[in-house]
Amino acid sequence: MSAEKKRGLGKGLSALLDDSTHVNSHASQNRSISTAPEINDAGSINEIKISEIEVNPFQPRTEFDAEALNELADSIKLQGLIQPITVRRMSAHKYQLISGERRLRASKMAGLTQIPAYIRTANDQQMLEMALIENIQRENLNAIETALSFQRMIDECNLKQEELGERVSKNRSTVTNYLRLLKLPPAIQASIRDGGISMGHARALITVESPSDQLYLHQLILKQQLSVRKVEEMVRNMQKHNGNKPATAKTDAPLSYQVQKIQDDLASKFSTKVKLKVNSQGAGSIEIPFLSEDDLGRILEMLDW
């Protein structure tokens, strides 16, 4: 009974996607796909050998959830692969994946040797655009992966932000907010990637100019489980305080570019606010604040204390 249902499903898909001649010859095409010289019908589904498919080198996704892959593999064992992957033909027996790496991986886990696929013609730029867009729109990329995908489309596909927004169906402000994440210190980017802080937290931190202050607030968010609204309030207070310093107040001499770079690098290394003070003779001090005994222990461990 299940076999009849499968044959019926396949026939229904063929009827929808192919013309009548394709429907009549569908089975024979599937059997001879590896040797057929012309398998490039834009609307047709072709069965191709998994061993002849190479993964897409432009794939932006770097992590796949193992549990979700296992669930998809189990589903494929029972129902077959319902949604075909998309490939481009490289040679007679070689294809390159455009989209559907998760489905391809799960099909391998399910023990399939052949897989249904749409075969398209695409150059490398089109490959990159299609892979990035397919993942952005249909996969649960984390915010940093999405930002990196956006940046790759701008850099490698020569797109402006407005054009990128049109490609991925997002307005320019949304694209800009994602791209700005890549200007945050690496420690904060990693926290966004791993789910330590939310996109809302990150947007609040982006408005803080100093990387040291960003890292200090980041540590507070993690330690005190601060809400986005609370962080936004803290940022406003910080900006108000910095903007209302009396002109006559004694301030530290501005740091040189080299010293400022060292200060920012140290702040990134210790994931907290670091302050360097340097006098005219080149002497000075380094201040590394900590939030608790545990935080102090973390910093001392990094110093091999």
Automatic annotation (TrEMBL):
Domain ParB-like N-terminal: 46-136
Alphabetical list of Pfam families matching this protein: HTH_ParB, ParB_C, ParB_N
Protein source organism: Mucilaginibacter boryungensis
Keyword Membrane: no
SMART domains: ParB
Similarity-based family: Belongs to the ParB family.
Keyword annotations: Chromosome partition, DNA-binding
Keyword Magnesium carried by entry: no
Record protein name field: ParB/RepB/Spo0J family partition protein
Matching InterPro entries: Chromosome_partition/occlusion, HTH_ParB/Spo0J, ParB/RepB/Spo0J, ParB/Sulfiredoxin_sf, ParB_dimer_C, ParB_N
